[in-house]
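Can't attach files on this board, so I'm pasting raw text. These are the components:
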Amino acid sequence: MKLQVSSSPHIGTKLTTQKIMGHVCIALLFPTIAGTVMFGIYSFVVVLVAAASAVLAEFLYNKITRQPLTVNDLSALVTGMILGLNLPPTAPLFVPIVGSFFAIMIVKMLFGGIGRNFANPAATARLFLVLSWTGFMTNYAAPVDYSQGFWKAFVSGFTKEYVTSATPLTALKGASGAVPESINLLDMFLGRIGGSIGEVCAVAIILGFIYLMIFKIIDWKLPVVYIAASAVAALVFYKNGWLFILPTLLSGGLLFAAVYMLTDYSTSPNTTIGRIIFAAGAGFLTVLFRRYSGMVGGVSFAIVLMNLTVPLLDRIIPKPFGYVKPKKEAARG
Amino acid sequence: MSYLFNRGIHPKDKKELTADLPFEVMSAPAKVYIPLCQHIGAPAKARVSVGDRVKAGTLIGEATGFISANVHSSVSGTVVAIEQRENAAGRKIDHIVIENDGLYEEEALPPLENPTKMDIFTRCYDAGIVGMGGATFPTHVKIQPNKPIHTLIINGAECEPYITADYRMMLEHPKEIVEGISYIKTVLGAQKVVIGIEDNKPKAIDAMQAAVAGTDITVQKLKTKYPQGGEKQLIHAVTKLKVPWTGLPADVGVIVVNVTTAFVVYEAIKLGKPSYTRFMTVSGKGIKRPANLIVRVGTPFEDVVDYLGHNDYVKAIVGGPMMGLSIANLNPVVAKGNSSLLLLDKSEEREIEPTPCINCGRCAMACPMRLIPMMTDRLILKDKIADSYKYHPQCCIECGCCAYVCPADRPLVQSQRLAKKLIKERMQ
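---
Top answer:
Structure tokens for the assembled complex are below.
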């Protein structure tokens, strides 16, 4: 009988990369469904197109470079879904296609594929799209009004019969001292606001977070520290800052990014202390950009900027158990 | 108070397969092959030649040097050959082949009453006692540290899945273990003795607690977590002391001894019996009738498997599934340090086809030594030895937690070993 010989350990968890990515996809379904309910079936098509073209992009890259197929690990699907959920519900379909190809081919695969990309592919692709097609990327629709008849409302994205709307983020821009009257916290929590497909409904995002925590897919410290740092930054940067904490947290892509984008394995630090600095920095920068920069949002910029600090943060190497300062050994080492 | 170390993992313990089975004696095969090196250190030198008649307990291999151990025959019979065979680690070493005459005549050392420190030390040396937990470090060396010892910890954690040998030992021979402990304590002059047992073995805790009644030995319940039985982790859990990263337990005044070692010390002193039997668990889905066996040293694993019967299996492991060695065939023999033999079927073993690291950091979160195995893996595979040195792979205890949790099935323990080796070769 032939026996297998390998190094210890001989047992392991059944968790694989594919399963992890599968869990993230399931968690992403919560905001996808919420977005579809809010903005109609067209927004679902946007996410679907983004996801499909991301997978296609990785498949093509594998074929062109004659490397083994890596689409099975589902990470391209995750990237595509995150990008799709980051788009406005009115985006023309070429936008998710271009975005996904950019995210996968340029940001992810050129730098070595899964685990080796230096910046979050979805966030970078979103920035690329915002800079290239600012008009399409800021054309937000109000949630569809189902009182006019379900089907009419549900397909309004296709018939272009949507009502364009400002997002709470735009309303908050420039405000300080008092929160604008158009801000309704309950609507923001439930998702009855304009915005990107995935980011509007806080409830769905929190459900996704709980799902990811149950299966221990993400490190809770990243979203929690990010949100806490954003809250503190809002307190500091705005006059009467306490009034701005909740509007800041619930507007724009802050919660979505906290749960799904900041927690990207490849582009977050390895150590606990590194992760805390990374998330706190991202939270601080997000609010800083929102308050003082020329742009309306700041989440993607903050994330990509902090992604660039990760190699630096990863230079923090924890001291091993029982570490004592080397005395004589230092000379030898 | 929490009796716990940081990080680590919670593998399924699978001890239910053999936990309730008392030790059964397996009779020795017609021929035993006794390896002359069953310990860490210099191999013993053969003291018999072909044609010599030996009894069970006859000294057949003599320790050479300080860190070495005596080897005794495990059956009575005739030496028929001294030949090179592969041991479990795949190394060719000398084995003394003894034809078993089936008489089991015994040759014992004189039992000792009220032994002095020197007596105990000499007896451990004479009886060839080595650490029974798996590391097989000669006990006579261990109990002679050059630093004062204040605490003796008896390791009854048995954190490796499947293995129940120490557990059964604690249930069946608690009094003897305590007596063995008292001898070791005398030698070390330790003020405090703690028996550490994981809380998934309540019966063993009860048994030991009853046995230590009236002595100053305490039994400490430990949280069940792997690698609780790791020396540095156990010391930290029990005493809150941290063994320096480049140091030994004696540096913080602690010595850790396995429960079965304590029992063997008792046997050597009270009964004069040298170390030539092995208490082992034979388990896994590949074994038809999992059992706890008392096996004579030198019995080929093949005979052990034939004795219990087997199903389909893909992997045979000597030792625990986390740190044990997988063997290519069942020719190697039972040695003093083998606490278990496991035959795993396809469903039990770990996937070993690696995929790219996804940087998830699970290995770093599991490492009880607070290392970042994925970085060592990444760097050492590119031959960046100086860079990987910054991640302290030399501290790795090879417990396997990192590879256990790795979703990408990276060979993390191998890279740590490779890094250790290359750093030793090229940097020091």
